[in-house]
Write a structure and sequence with these properties.
This protein has about 425 residues and is an alpha+beta fold. It contains eleven helices and 20 strands. The model has no long low-confidence stretch (mean pLDDT about 95).
Length: about 425
């Protein structure tokens, strides 16, 4: 079904730039880059999938069953995304908030051309219908000057970022959420707000490159599906399946970085010892354990790491790692369906949190706080969490990024607001130059 070729790459960083530039002529692109972030759960340094041979696109209704059918019948690599609003397929929920982006709620495709980079080895997997193009494509990629990006479109010079929820209204909404917590409706909920710009033209690849450069995250994504773009600097893995093992790595707990090493170490230590941040993380770990238990073999759910602090270019983050085992007969899509949306972006208890989130937020989340990733022909998968991301609808000329934070009984609305601005900093910088 696919023709394979292995190639030695002498300079992987240059090659990545060339490959990304080359991909821009396609209407379906998924680029996943770990930015050489060394962690034991990584499969590849970077993956590129382009040019759909088959695809599926749908709204939330019966979406997971449709995905199951598509993934089972394709029996090949499929790449794409799950939007947060697929919650309405899993539970009796609705999404009625404003949606300026208009992304389909689920979209996957079977790429004709696939590139896997690990160290200095590139593996090329082309469907047999296009296998005669491998050599020409590799020559073309090699001849691209990686220093120059394609500046074919006129770009809006002065991007005016607006807030969907203003500061006073944000405080009001957080206080409403706190009253739900004090009443016992929920323990924790992730409350998000949107920043946006209308009538705006951006250069997606340039914005992605700039965002990636200042963040260097382990789950960076450039996604294009026709006129819709995701430019993501995500630090978070949602879920991975390798053989019978399932791994989920929720993030809860954020602290800023300092250029002064001693001060930076202090900030990291303070995050690790912060009672509020730890309780946020542990609540979500409990939720993830519960979600994984729905498909796990008996007694196999295990917390491999609890509240470990990892450092990224922009922030320190507290990450836990929860694993489980599933048996041979469990369908990979069922593992996703029973854990979606990820607990780190909802709250606990999950359904109550999602209802309260829907009532208080002003924007339909869409792909933000959804997931991007792939299924392999062997029924494995790997998906990130779509955070620290810019979303763009080229037809509507609408640019958006959202940020959120976990609200718990100990939350101070002002501190939560400041944490949102810290998370939004990189996106704002690259859009406003």
């Amino acid at each position: 079904m696919r023709s394979l070729k292995s190639v030695h790459i002498s300079n992987p960083e240059t090659f990545k730039k060339q490959l990304l530039l080359w991909s821009q002529k396609f209407e379906e692109i998924v680029w996943l880059d770990s930015n050489n972030y060394k962690h034991k759960y990584a499969s590849y340094d970077a993956v590129m999938a382009v040019d759909a041979f088959t695809s599926i696109q749908t709204d939330y209704y019966d979406a997971f069953e449709q995905l199951k059918t598509y993934q089972s019948s394709t029996k090949d690599w499929v790449f794409g995304y799950l939007s947060y609003d697929l919650k309405n397929d899993v539970e009796d929920l609705v999404s009625r908030n404003f949606d300026g982006l208009q992304f389909p709620e689920l979209c996957f495709f079977q790429p004709k051309k696939l590139f896997f980079l690990k160290g200095n080895t590139l593996e090329v997997h082309y469907l047999n219908v296009v296998s005669d193009e491998i050599e020409d494509d590799l020559k073309e990629i090699d001849n691209i000057d990686g220093c120059h990006s394609e500046q074919s479109r006129s770009v809006s010079d002065d991007i005016k970022i607006k807030l969907r929820i203003h500061k006073d209204e944000y405080f009001e909404k957080v206080n409403t959420m706190l009253s739900h917590i004090h009443r016992g409706d929920i323990y924790e909920a992730n409350f998000c707000q949107e920043f946006y710009a209308e009538n705006t033209t951006i250069h997606p690849l340039e914005i992605y490159n700039n965002l990636n450069q200042i963040s260097n995250p382990p789950f960076a994504t450039f996604l294009r599906l026709y006129d819709k773009y995701l430019l993501s600097a995500s630090p978070e893995r949602y879920i991975k399946k390798e053989g019978h093992k399932i791994t989920s790595q929720p993030i809860k707990g954020t602290a800023k970085r300092s250029l002064n090493k001693d001060e930076d170490d202090e900030l990291k230590k303070a995050l690790f010892e912060d009672v509020k941040e730890r309780s946020e993380n542990i609540m979500i770990v409990d939720l993830v354990r519960n979600d994984l238990s729905k498909t796990a073999t008996k007694g196999s759910v295990n917390v491999e790491e609890l509240c470990k602090v990892y450092s990224f270019d922009q922030v320190h983050q507290m990450i836990s790692t929860v694993t489980s085992q599933i048996d041979e007969t469990t369908h990979p899509v069922d593992v996703i369906k029973t854990t979606f949306p990820m607990g780190s972006m909802t709250g606990a208890p999950k359904i109550s949190a999602m209802k309260i989130i829907e009532a208080l937020e002003a924007t339909k989340r869409g792909l933000y706080s959804g997931a991007v990733g792939y299924f392999t022909p062997e029924n494995d998968f790997d998906f990130n969490v779509v955070i620290r991301s810019i979303l763009y609808n080229d037809t509507e000329k609408y640019v958006s990024y959202s940020v959120g934070g976990a609200i718990t009984a100990k939350s101070d609305p002002l501190k939560e607001y400041e944490e949102c601005l810290l998370k939004a900093k990189a996106m704002r910088e690259v859009l406003e130059h």
